[in-house]
Hints:
The chain has helices at 12-17, 28-32, 50-63, 114-121, 138-144, 151-154, 182-188, 223-236, 269-280, 323-334, 382-394, 410-416, 419-432; strands spanning 18-21, 43-47, 67-70, 86-89, 96-100, 105-109, 126-127, 161-167, 173-177, 197-204, 206-207, 210-218, 241-248, 257-264, 285-288, 291-294, 309-318, 338-344, 366-375. With 447 residues, the protein is α+β, with helices and mostly antiparallel strands. Strands 12, 13, 14, 15, 16, 17, 18 and 19 form an eight-stranded antiparallel β-sheet that branches. The protein is globular, with a radius of gyration of 22 Å. The two termini are 26 Å apart.
Amino acid sequence: xxxxxxxxxxxxxxxxxxxxxxxxxxxxxxxxxxxxxxxxxxxxxxxxxxxxxxxxxxxxxxxxxxxxxxxxxxxxxxxxxxxxxxxxxxxxxxxxxxxxxxxxxxxxxxxxxxxxxxxxxxxxxxxxxxxxxxxxxxxxxxxxxxxxxxxxxxxxxxxxxxxxxxxxxxxxxxxxxxxxxxxxxxxxxxxxxxxxxxxxxxxxxxxxxxxxxxxxxxxxxxxxxxxxxxxxxxxxxxxxxxxxxxxxxxxxxxxxxxxxxxxxxxxxxxxxxxxxxxxxxxxxxxxxxxxxxxxxxxxxxxxxxxxxxxxxxxxxxxxxxxxxxxxxxxxxxxxxxxxxxxxxxxxxxxxxxxxxxxxxxxxxxxxxxxxxxxxxxxxxxxxxxxxxxxxxxxxxxxxxxxxxxxxxxxxxxxxxxxxxxxxxxxxxxxxxxxxxxxxxxxxxxxx
Length: 447
């Protein structure tokens, strides 16, 4: 590994194209630290544009530094941070520009956050479905697929994607869309950061002003009955309604909770009430915070993890959420120590062909995710025991959403995709990054 001290500055050319931070510099610690990991890179480079990204990649090639790419820094596997090597921090490439008000075509810098995108589109009565929190980066979430609060109404973030501007490993800036570099465009829609450094995305935004959004908290007695009831209602619900049923375990000073988060993608109060009425009857309701609000206001602020804890996150898709899978989810949560979330799919997601994008889980009814909070001082084996419990749920599922995948182990990455999708991704990887420069990702090996 090549190490760079603060006294060994990169070339003047690179300094003009980007901000350069080495250990000890002001701003280095913040740039090296992400939500789920604290890194110690040899160098952080913050390009201002595509030319700066290309210069950073040339510098990494010349010095032998491994490359990590960061946008919002919310990778649950810690892939936005690195121990050693070079971090390309894209957060200065963050513009949001409405290119065509009539079609809703908007160009978004890869380092922008979804909160900034929502704020920029709000005055135009437009929005994009993506993310749960304001600070999540556009680049990382989009390349993984993008499951958001209007997913049943408007599909994944990638289903609104018209083009990507990307700098490849050899420093070329290329545009990928359905015509130019169509194979790469297919791979970028769900294949993660394997193929280059995305610097811009063209989306087609949707008309959206206010929605009905909030949390309904239940006093749950029979948990399997509640889960099965949610499943049945979810299957029959208006696709303007996207819901997520979550279970939080009890912690010292806090009781466990069962919460339905919901977004009805319409300002019509009567329609929202009609759609939500059966969900409010699932179990005794202890609080109900659903109300009309601007779409841009539904994204939450999440900036840090509780100190002394690390989070292991896993997920899988259920094509059919039958009673056996309901029982497995109940067993996982009732065993303690895991926060569990069930996110409704279907609707617009399912109307896109399985082979149309690298995100291939189009027939999924539900995405099931679990987060295990592991204390830093936990005894050896606690993590392995938690993941063994998850494996019983995972065995009933199919694949995974890389955006919520807290592991970058090769076996887990391979299993995230159907075999034919993975083979196709590997072929595209071989064409655009044969040397596997972008390996600090949920890495697909080049074929």
